[in-house]
Fold:
Amino acid sequence: MIKRKKSKKRNLNRTSNRKTLNKRTLNKNSLSSRRTSNKKRVLNRKKLVLYCCCIGLVLIVLLSLSTSHHGTSTSGGTQLEINYSDSWNGSYSDGLGFKRINGTGPETIDVSNEEVNMAALVQKEGYRSGNLSVCIIRNGKTIASESTRERNGSVLVTG
Structure:
């Protein structure tokens, strides 16, 4: 009889071992499903970051295009016309603040669609010769004009 009791205990141990094995396989399966769901989450986060970066880049490009002050129009309003064959830089004020400008060659900058009083300071870049002339144009008429031939010269115009 003692043997039978031991065998029953062995059978009980075997069934309890089976139960723990089943729990282990369930845990392994749930771990693998967790791993795949974590991988999906990481991929979704990466996609989200990529989309946000793309949208940010598009917004930056649109903002930079909308704040551009350079134009070739000669319609109404106030414009700043710079005539110089080489590089130049400077700034102008349209009553709302100062704006930095730079360029190479002649250029017409649309300052405002309205008639505004303004001032502009433009300087030749480098120690170069040539004539630098700056004009303020309001509604198609030249209001003020200054020029210089000095090397590294600058021009201040108000109007």
Remarks:
- The longest strand covers residues 141-148.
- Helices lie at 2-66.
- Strands lie at 70-71, 78-83, 87-93, 98-104, 107-112, 119-124, 132-138, 141-148, 154-158.
